[in-house]
Amino acid sequence: MTSISPSSEGYPADLRALTSLRAFLALGVVLFHYQLQWDPALGFSPIIERSRLAVDAFFFLSGFILAHVYGPSFAAGTFSYRRFIVARLARLYPLHLAVLAGATVMVLGAMAAGVRYDPSTYTLEGFLKTLFLVQAWFPSEIGYNWSGPSWSLSAEWFAYLLFPAYAWLALRMRRHPWVLLILGIVAYVAIDAIYRAAFGKVLPRAEDDMGILRIAPAFLIGVAMYGLGRGVVWRPLVSIAACLATTALLLAAMQMSLDDRLVVALAAPVVFSWSMLAKTQSEGLLASGPLVFAGEVSFAFYLAHMPLLVAYKGIAAEMRGIDSGFYMVPWELAGLLLVTVLVSVALHMFVERPGRSAIRRWFEKRDVRPVAISE
Questions:
Q1: What is the four-CA torsion angle of 20, 21, 27, 33, rounded to 10 degrees?
Q2: Distance between CA 299 and CA 96 in Å, rounded?
């Protein structure tokens, strides 16, 4: 997209710093899952452990970005819900189906070869819920491993379906974005209390078991932050200082292993301050081509890393005649990370991009109607 000059009334079209932020968030989630695979005697990083909460930052980002992209058309009355849903389908499904197909081949191959695996997490019900991205919509005592990270896609899909309601609220409170932000915070606190009473754990622990409750207030907070940022005027140095301060504060909270909810709360200002870098044209290295490309690949990286990890451990365990719960040594993790990066780039280039374009073209053709010629 082409950037426009920053002003007090809007952001530039292309928020490159936020795209780069996605790369760091996805890497955090991957490293969290990798840390679970190595011997604790090798060391433990609280920052990496709390990086699992990067998913909540993704939820903030989703609300922010969709308000940025679709808010103007909603306000102008030109928003098309059908085209919005098609665009969201095109965003999610090519990669989702590719990764799910790979996981299915893996499970069927394991069954045929007599490889040991946990059948309770690879059920037909779980497959169908994962296929249609509704696995995070219902209570669940057992997580589904068909495509583990896709629970967050299920939550995203739920928020997408409700986007007009979020946009309507944002439009009604266009001149009072602080009110919308407070509403989002209150909603988060209330839903967390309800979730703890029902499931015995805090809201940032919601995944397959009603993960939609986790995104509902976070998405609203993201929308509110966009509305707030539209009217804020900062100098470039202020934006840079805010970015450094909020990021450092978040990392410190993660290192101290503070409450999950506090870490999530501190992630919101990070998203906001990074967005202000774009508005003040002070993104610097964060707008560089390699980092932006890494951010574009982050969706594939996030989605593919767990199936590849499970596949590797299953194959390695069978070859070595040991249980698949074995600890991986550093060179194994480094090699797997490299393979995952290469696979992710390939998925992005040859599945995600062309798949997104194909779905949009197909629906656009169906939108074309023959024009009647007057006699």
A1: -150
A2: 10
In angstroms, the CA 107 to CA 122 distance is 8
Q: Which residues pair with 160 in a beta bridge?
A: none
- The CA-atom distances, in angstroms, between 356 and each of 64, 94, 257 are 21, 7, 39
pLDDT digits (tens, 9 = 90+) for 324-368: 889 999 999 999 999 999 999 999 999 999 999 999 999 888 765
Q: Is 10 helix (H, G, I), strand (E, B) or coil?
A: strand
Mapping DSSP onto H, E and C, the string for 261-292 reads: HHHHHHHHHHHHHHHHHHHCCCCHHHHCHHHH
> How high is the mean pLDDT of the chain?
92
* Count of other CB atoms within 10 angstroms of residue 102: 17
**DSSP secondary structure, 49-79, as one string:** HHGGGHHHHHHHHHHHHHHHHHHHHHHHT--
What digits encode the pLDDT tens for the residues 143-162? Answer: 778 888 999 999 999 999 99
- Is the overall model pTM greater than 0.85, yes or no? yes
Report CA-CA distances (Å) from 48 to 53, 96, 124, 247, 313.
10, 25, 33, 15, 21
List Cβ neighbours of 266 (8 Å cut-off, separation of 6 or more). Answer: 246, 249, 250, 253
